[in-house]
């Protein structure tokens, strides 16, 4: 009995998961030629290929066609005007117009060439492979002098790294475990970087961070526009390859100036004495941008008095300011969607976020200066 049951079970048909329309139509034609009724043909098709292979009405339609001596299994050519506009001549003309005016619209091209908009759309996107994009926003257009200064400063910093490594080339400056360029030298051991940023009590979540996975049948998600709160504080952060050395928060309504920045440097000096023993004796290398409080006379006098070296920074180059390209972006994304009732709650969240960062995060940021 068990052997009979096993034999019977092994004869159960397994549905075919991968099939084509022509294959199913060929089966319908075969069964119809054998005299099978359309209702039975649909039943067998559903059992073998699944319910979605061919509907009942479609089976009857194909049986009618085969009964009228049809032999083709493919789709009949659709009626309508043949496509004659998408040819090599029109493709060349469209390409020439776009190259002359990159902002020309599909409608304008169609009117100028007197061809349908649908044809122009097909030529532009499918044949020529164009896609319309917005220009990339940059904070400042660099002049030739700015570019030359940027190149000279970058070359000087690379030479400084080579000298500290005792090498005459950069072949020994390799890639570290995190994918960043790594060089063990006095420059990076003594380097401290810092900058200021505004932090709002209510920071809206960015459109990128609010993206979710959506199935075709899922409802459309909505995101309401939220403005950043007017209440904000200025945070000054100084850090090195080991972590944050000083986090200084100004009260609401205050911003940094030269006198305040010198006071912050005094607190930074004491924080270095506590957290980085021996660094003041070896010599601090400070990296900050060219903001007015950083380049003011009193700030320069303070730095000269204590013998701190200033790492040269090209003008209008936030991509070379470590805090701008490595620290503040993740901080703002972390605060996105958060709303704080008081300034103390915001400061507490900032300190917790900085304290929970892994030391590799800071090491990657400092060492990434080489690759930039």
TrEMBL record:
GO molecular function terms attached to this record: nucleic acid binding
Q: Where is this region: Disordered?
A: 72-92
User: Origin, by domain of life?
Assistant: Eukaryota
Please report the stretch or stretches of sequence annotated as the Mos1 transposase HTH domain: 23-62
Q: What name does this protein carry?
A: Histone-lysine N-methyltransferase SETMAR
């Amino acid at each position: 009995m068990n052997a009979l049951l096993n034999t019977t079970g092994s004869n159960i048909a397994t549905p075919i998961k991968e099939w084509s329309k022509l294959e199913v139509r060929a089966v319908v034609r075969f069964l119809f030629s054998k005299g099978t009724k359309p209702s039975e043909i649909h039943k067998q098709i559903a059992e073998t290929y699944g319910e979605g292979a061919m509907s009942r009405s479609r089976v009857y339609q194909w049986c009618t066609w085969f009964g009228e001596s049809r032999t083709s299994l493919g789709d009949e050519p659709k009626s309508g005007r043949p496509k004659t506009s998408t040819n090599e001549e029109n493709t060349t003309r469209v390409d020439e117009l776009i190259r002359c005016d990159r902002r020309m619209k599909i409608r304008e091209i169609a009117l100028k060439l007197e061809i349908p908009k649908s044809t122009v759309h097909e030529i532009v996107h499918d044949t020529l492979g164009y896609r319309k994009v917005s220009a990339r926003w940059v904070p400042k257009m660099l002049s030739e002098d700015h570019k030359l200064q940027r190149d000279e400063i970058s070359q000087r910093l690379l030479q400084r790294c080579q000298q500290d490594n005792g090498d005459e080339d950069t072949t020994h400056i390799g890639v570290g475990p995190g994918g960043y360029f790594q060089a063990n030298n006095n420059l990076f051991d003594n380097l401290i970087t810092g900058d200021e940023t505004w932090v709002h009590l209510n920071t809206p979540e960015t459109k990128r961070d609010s993206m979710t996975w959506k199935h075709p049948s899922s409802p459309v998600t909505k995101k309401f526009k939220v403005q950043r709160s007017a209440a904000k504080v200025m945070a000054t952060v100084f850090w090195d390859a080991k972590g944050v050395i000083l986090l200084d928060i100004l009260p609401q309504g205050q911003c940094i100036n030269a006198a305040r920045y010198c006071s912050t440097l005094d607190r930074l000096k004491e924080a270095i004495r506590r957290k980085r023993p021996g660094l003041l004796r070896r010599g601090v290398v400070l990296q900050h941008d060219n903001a007015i409080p950083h380049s003011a006379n009193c700030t320069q006098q303070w730095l000269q008095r204590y013998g701190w070296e200033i790492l040269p920074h090209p003008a209008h180059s936030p991509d070379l300011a470590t805090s701008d390209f490595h620290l503040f972006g993740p901080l703002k994304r972390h605060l996105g969607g958060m709303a704080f009732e008081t300034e103390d709650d915001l400061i507490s969240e900032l300190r917790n976020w900085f304290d929970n960062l892994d030391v590799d995060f800071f090491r990657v940021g400092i060492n990434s200066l080489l690759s930039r």
